[in-house]
Amino acid sequence: MAAVTETIGGQLLVLGLFFRWACVALLFTMVVAAVSHLAQGEGFGDYSHAVESGIVFLGLTFIGPGKFSIDQTLFPPRRRLF
After folding, report:
1. What are phi and psi of 10, to 5 degrees?
2. At residue 82, does pLDDT exceed 80?
């Protein structure tokens, strides 16, 4: 499941399609990876990549897709009245 999530999620990130959903799925994968490394008693060097990637995906979830993404084309933001 992690390989499928990382492959398809990475492609979705590049395209900017279902951007936030892909970031959440990848974040969940990185949390599971970090926890599994911690449960095995491995050092920080072994799980640091998963933690760093998780922080990046969390940040991207809040930032959202850019203006040239497919998400912006298919699902334009709603206009505010005020």
Report:
1. -65, -40
2. no
